[in-house]
Backbone:
């Protein structure tokens, strides 16, 4: 991380965000829905350096559909094997949909192209034209590292809390906001007042035009007298509530992996104490 400035990743993020929707559409078409929508979420596959869907029940064995962000390439995997791949450079989004549907059909699965997403995305940056990513290799590679490194950090954080009940959920990338995150729950019962803290890394959005780490306690705190956070964190209160450290601040840290883990852990403990958990 750090080979390309965080604020230079907006175009790459928009392309990858849209491309990833083919994988979530494949999951929505072929998996039973669950209340938290996690059936449509991704995990980070270290072996393939890709965001991949949950396992789809294909004939002959389960498969996953995913995206290698560094190449802007859709993949279908079975275990450690890539069964097929489709690079979007020079191809249209419609061609990507036709490709994924043909692969799903061959595997005895339902098509993805007809799936309607329950959320909206910004306009597709390619606008129906062929993707042109030849000049965006550095940015896509850097964006991929912003998923790979934080995924490892979040897994390590969650592992520290395995004795907590209900405790941390899986580390998932959510296709709507494209953030990778885990949620730590403190109360067995659900409902609007159930206490929790969500930790994640966003690749950037309407709030910050660069990747950022966030730690979001729930219920949110009163805006007056917010507790002090570990550096370089600050409270974000407009649009969402949480402790935030921007990509530029993370890259300025010494030993970034350890420092990011320390920030997430410290902000989590601040939220946990304030929630009385």
Residues:
């Amino acid at each position: 991380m750090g080979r390309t400035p965080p604020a230079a990743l907006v175009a790459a993020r928009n392309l990858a965000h849209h491309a990833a929707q083919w994988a979530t559409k494949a999951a929505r078409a072929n998996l039973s829905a669950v209340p938290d929508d996690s059936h449509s979420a991704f995990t980070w596959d270290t072996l393939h350096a890709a965001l991949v869907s949950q396992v789809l029940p294909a004939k002959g064995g389960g498969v996953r559909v995913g995206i290698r962000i560094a190449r802007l390439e859709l993949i279908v995997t079975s275990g450690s094997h890539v069964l097929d791949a489709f690079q979007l450079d020079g191809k249209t989004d419609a061609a990507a949909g036709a490709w994924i549907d043909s692969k799903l059909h061959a595997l005895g699965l339902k098509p993805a192209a007809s799936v309607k997403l329950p959320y909206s995305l910004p306009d597709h940056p390619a606008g129906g034209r062929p993707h042109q990513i030849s000049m965006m290799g550095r940015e896509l590679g850097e964006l991929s590292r912003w998923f790979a490194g934080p995924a490892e950090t979040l897994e390590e954080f969650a592992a520290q809390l395995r004795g907590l009940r209900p405790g941390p959920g899986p580390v998932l990338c959510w296709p709507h906001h494209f953030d990778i995150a885990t949620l730590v729950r403190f109360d067995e019962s659900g409902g609007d007042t159930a206490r929790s803290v969500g930790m994640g890394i966003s690749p950037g959005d309407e709030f910050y035009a660069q990747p950022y780490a966030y730690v979001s306690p729930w219920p949110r705190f009163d805006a007056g007298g917010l507790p002090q956070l570990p550096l370089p964190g600050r409270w974000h209160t407009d649009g969402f509530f949480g402790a935030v450290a921007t990509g530029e601040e993370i890259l300025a840290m010494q030993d970034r992996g350890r420092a990011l883990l320390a920030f997430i852990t410290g902000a989590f403990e601040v939220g946990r104490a304030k929630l009385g958990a």
